[in-house]
Write the structure tokens for this entry.
Amino acid sequence: MQRITDAARLEAGLRELDAQSVHVGMVDPDGGFRDKLVSADKAVKLAKSGYPFCEVLYFWDIAEKTFQDGAFIDRPAELHADTLRRYPFSANTALCLADFSGEFGERSARNLCLKLLGEVGDLGYSVHSAFEFEFFVFAETPESLRAKKYRELTYFAQGNRTYSLQTAALHGELLAGLKDTMTTLGVSIDALHTELGPGCFEAPLTHAEGIKAADDALLFKNFAKAYFLRNGLTAGFMSKLSPDLSGQSGHFHISLSDRNGAPAFAAPSEPDGISQTARHFLGGLITLMPELLAMCSHTVNAYKRMVPGAWAPTAATWGVQNRTAAVRIINDTPEATRLEFRVPSADTNPYLSLAMCLGAGLHGIRNRIEPPQGSTENFYAAASDPRTTFPTDLGRAADRLEASTAARAIFGDVFVDSHVTGRRFEDAEYRKHVSEWELRRYLEVA
């Protein structure tokens, strides 16, 4: 019955958009939009009958190298009619997200988010959140990147500075085109400005309720890349491009509202301006952050950003309006009181960051976990408590996640084991690699 209802919603939505074709997107564990283009009629048919899709998405890495043998059969999946949007690059075309269902679907971070959002709802709250991404733009194409072996790359807007009027004035048409693309997609950009470094930009997205915030973030990254490629440029969302440049963040803002729509994190009369619910949510996040880190920081490169002196947290810390903390409390007004989770990098899978925050926050609320004392100190310069210090690489982070009884209780064994397997393979691939730094350092003297 649910499929019939969803199919009817999809059909009505396609008719409203006057869409004759649909880009159906499956999201892989690294946050990639895996696309199939079908007719509108076939999309409705798939919504009714199901959308079988190859299981290999969870058995290969970001470079499409498989790490598990098998027949790679099709697994049941479903189209989600509530994700239907207008496709920005061709007329009479829509896009719709799909995901695995049933037991195999327990591997999906998006499904996990939906489950956790339901649990938050059972407690009487709704979730509002938003991502903000920093990214570099290069005057390069996929062909030139490969020809240069990813070295000596040419940055777009090389004279760029933070909040640069000159960059905005010179390239306003390009930036306006990016905003138009996102508007067509139904993704609202709250602001768009330049950041520190050549060709560096930041795009805070407008907050949204429930799963839409993560959907918006997923679509923003994938379609920003496509937009710049269509303009002969390359957008990069890596955590750390160079030791000479700042890392690229993917900060995540989150708050709860009660059944009446009132902000559940705000308590202006309290010393920190936050409610008991917010304190317990924060307590869970601070407590579990080191053992759940492989969820929001799931690439090898993410750990190159989280080092001392690189403008990124290295331990589970918090403070009111403290930009050096892992969690910054923003309490300018009761309506806007929220937690800013400053650990994720620009390469994060938005569903993994949202699931991590929701799971840890729910754990804190249910167990009434009080956070440690917050601080206004410069955490970048402070010595961290070994109990709160982050794992220093992806392999160690995967080990912590696998051993976490809290993670298994919150997210389930299927998800934890699947995610750990993929992260361990990613770490093993990296450890086989010999870097240019090693050659320069050891070849002549070791």
